[in-house]
Amino acid sequence: MLKGLRLGExxxxxxxxxxxxxxxxxxxxxxxxxxxxxxxxxPAGVGSRILVVVELSGANDGLNTIVPYTNDAYYRARPKxxxxxxxxxxxxxxxxxxxxxxxxxxxxxxxxxxIVHGVGYDNPSFSHFTSMAYWQTGAPNSGDPYGWxxxxxxxxxxSGGDNYIVDVEARxxxxxxxxxxxxxxxxxPDRFKRDATYEEESALDRLAAPRTARNSxxxxxxxxxxxxxxxxxxVREACAAYRTPIDYxxxxxxxxxxxxxxxxxxxxxxxxVSYPHNAFDTHVNQADTHARLLTYTSDHIAAFLGxxxxxxxGPDVAVMVFSEFGRRVAENANLGTDHGTAGPSFIAGQAxxxxxxxxxxxxxxxxxxxxxxxxxFRRVYAxxxxxxxxxxxxxxxxxxEFEPLPVFQA
Length: 410
Known about the structure:
By secondary structure, the protein is α/β, with parallel strands linked by helices. It has helices at about 10-15, 70-75, 100-110, 130-135, 150-155, 200-210, 215-240, 255-265, 285-310, 375-390, 395-400, and strands at about 50-55, 90, 95-100, 115-120, 165-170, 185, 270-275, 315-320, 345-350, 355, 375. A hairpin with a 5-residue loop joins strand 2 (about 90) and strand 3.
């Protein structure tokens, strides 16, 4: 497992990357004391802020999410899929959301939901894999090996502290891949354990057992192994023990697990959660499927933010929601929509100045049937990295200079 490395030459990150604690399972050492309940008086300020990123995998149809119900061009392009005004929850005199999106309607009218219109990038890709890689790295056409959140973590904490990033997925996302940080990755807490072969498992157990080290290098290895073993226990215990009166909706795709870890006092500052199975790829018979997905998403995100307020962490938590691209403006012959370009992103939380940001793309001035983006997606990232998380110089993180949006309260 550590073949080719002499013990005295191994640093902590080398050990983690060499597989001592099972990167297939994404485990990093927890390195703190027992799980404890969050305090309602948790300190506010940049250093205690938490960023939660939600990925709507599959390319969400933004036009049927934030519906421009006064726009005739929308209904001309979608005579069957266009959601009629009487079936919407109206946010204002121009836009509405689908009837099942009560959570988003409430957040918007409470001033806690920012809608960023027309988010995209130059020369868009219509491939799920390629476009998602662009969004996850924050560096289109670069082939960068690290994710934008990984680079953000490396910048904010160059020491690579334990569990700075948690990725609630079955497999680690490119977005959280970092040079010095090792994200803690899991999807089902009750099955969260080190990823190792049968032969490796017994060796790891021996390393984690109490024992006397013969030198500082051995002591380091024993500490890392024991820390990894504690991590899986802490995650399972935190999620199993968490109780809340908040209803997280019919489809709980991960934010309830984030809430459990925040309430348990995890040191994590960046969480990444993906709606699984490419669910938003709605090429056929979109209407009912998409409406259900939006209901589940709206309920889940609103519930999470309500839960954060309940435990006293509301001011410290912001949620950013994105999808890898939007859909074409016109409906297709299968009563669905095909891969498109720009779409809305969302930023939500108590600290948010709710409302509309960026310009809605002109539906009468399309590019081969697709909307022209009006907000570069890295402006959204700059908002989260610099304004929310306090990154003093986000340019290396985002591979360029991008102006933040005025989304957060002063």
